[in-house]
Amino acid sequence: MKTRSIIIALAIVLIPFIIGTSLFLLKSSGAIREKANFISDTRKNNKGITYKGIKVDWTFCPDWEYKPLFFPAEEYLVFMFHYRNDNEYNIQVMPSYTFASPHNRRYSANEEISMYIENEVENKFKAEDQTPITFKIPPNVTKHYIVTFEKPHSLDNFYVDVDVFRDVTLRLHYKKEDGEWSNYSNELVGKYKGRG
Amino acid sequence: MDMFKKIVKNFGPEWGAAVMGTAAICITMQLSSEVSRPFSFLLYVGLGFYLLATVMFVTFLIPWTLRFFMYPEEIKKDLHHPIRGNFFPTMPISFILAGTGTNKLGPMLFGPWFAYHLSIVFFFLGAVGIFTFGYLLIRTQFLNKDVRLEHANFSWFIPPVSHLIIPVLGACSMDVYWAETSLAPVLFVISMIALGVGFFNFLFVGAAIWHRYTYQGIPEAKLAPTIMVGIAPTAIIVIFLIKFIQAIEASHGSMFGINFISIFPLIKIIASVLWGYSLWWLMLVVILVTHYITTKAHPFVFGWWAYTFPFEAFTVATGLLAKCVATQFLQGMLITLNIIAVIIWITVVFGTIKWLESGAFLKPQH
């Protein structure tokens, strides 16, 4: 191979690694600003829910800012759920999450944004996220899961459905009071069991 | 200007394979980045591959498209070629892969709204191209009196594979953003039709190729890389199944009456069985390529790009299956496969530059 061809080939194969490493270092240095102002944690005031031996707690940040490279930053609703198994046996969970707000806005968690902010959330909330769809929780062990929702503009109340139990859905209600988000109630809602 | 015309004239349908082989690495990187914290930088390397694949895609699309208008006789010649013709769908597949990359990594660049809308545009453009070339190729094959048994090779899998890849982006799009919109049933129906076409054509075409390999012997050395294409159909179905279950999950556990909890165990079993077949095929590739290397010459040809995408599809299937079963074992495999995929890609890039340097590009072999 001629030297010129070797240089061209080297340039092509190195481009993704150079771009990737530069962006990673840029992100790690904090040059691309991400901020999270308010954080609440149900573990601090024992507001979590226990059902069938599974204790569910959650840490919530309503204004996690993520900045795409070419577009302006946007705020996201970020939760980290903590599942503790108080049973004497292993359990297998496969939770899913739904956001609902007025004007019939109803959508699922955004796995992509969760993936991009995972390291920062783990650092901030001091817990390690689970990536599989389904995961095992041994007795007396707590596992954590990051959930990110896109935040509609002019949002002042919403609820989040956490589907982790077979027969009920855990519903977390939030509303804005004096500019602060308040988790004013939580409930276990029976699931519809009809014929598909 | 003359050089540009020469490039357009000789810009064969197979160039989409280079985009495919580069684009799929962005997904293998993204999945590898999720394995554990030390690998998280791979997400950004994946973004680098996404950007490179986008540049390649746009650069290749220009001469590829111009050739249809400037040299229709060359297009006709390629379409009737029993091997080259099958590579036409590689460019529409690139649309689908660009859409999949945009769906997964685009929000890092443009935010979710723009990325999900852009990936839907890629979905429809890719689907139209794949169905169009699918019909054109099958028509040509059925009406062409010159097709003989010894022409059968695994590049014939490309049209079925192209249909199988449509539901992958369909399911990715139904997940999260389009889950409960009026577009979801459209995506579902198109994806299911494509899945049906791809799956059954894979079985029928596979039988024809198997027949040739058994009774006519294996093809000449330059077609050796096409054996790797055999790994792709089942691997892509695995990818679809896992993305589909995630789409059902995103539709609050039920999509068109298909219930997440009742279907997930079945999907785990079927996906594991199909992944196992791809793994078995990978061993077969090793055996046959070893045979080619030891008994015949195995020089570099552009067709070596066939080693990249199918292997990367298997790597993606491994990473997604790891989200459902045998997580630690499959995640270990994912990292290993990802490293091998990059090594193969680097080898093929160097080979391609050497091949271009030799002037082979301007002397296509029909």
* Biggest pleated-sheet summary of chain A: 5 strands, antiparallel
- Rg of chain B computed from alpha carbons, rounded to a whole number of angstroms: 20 Å
Kindly report the oligomeric state of this protein: heterodimer
Distance between the termini of chain B: 25 Å
Q: What's the SSE pattern of chain A?
A: HEEEEEEEHEEEEE
Q: Which sheet architecture does the biggest sheet of chain B show?
A: 2 strands, antiparallel
Helix/sheet category of chain B: mainly alpha
Total number of strands of chain B: 2
The percentage of residues in β strands of chain A lies in 35-45%
Return residue spans of chain B where pLDDT drops below 50 for at least 5 consecutive residues: none
Distance between the termini of chain A: 63 Å
Strand content of chain B: under 5%
Q: Taking Cα atoms only, what radius of gyration of chain A do you get, to the nearest Å?
A: 21 Å
Describe the structure.
- The complex is a heterodimer of chains A (196) and B (366).
- Chain A is an alpha+beta fold and 196 residues long.
- Helices cover 21% and strands 42% of the residues of chain A.
- Chain A has 2 helices and 12 strands.
- In chain A, the strands form 3 sheets. In chain A, strands 1, 2, 3, 4 and 9 form a 5-stranded antiparallel beta sheet that branches. In chain A, strands 7-6-10-11-12 form a 5-stranded antiparallel beta sheet, with no helix packed on it.
- In chain A, strand 2 (49-51) and strand 3 form a beta hairpin.
- Chain B is mainly alpha-helical and 366 residues long.
- Chain B has helices spanning 2-10, 16-33, 42-70, 72-80, 90-110, 112-143, 158-174, 183-215, 232-250, 260-295, 308-321, 327-357, and strands at residues 254-255, 258-259.
- In chain B, a hairpin with a 2-residue loop joins strand 1 (254-255) and strand 2.
- Classes of the chains: A alpha+beta (196), B mainly alpha (366).
- The interface between A and B is large, with 49 and 60 residues.
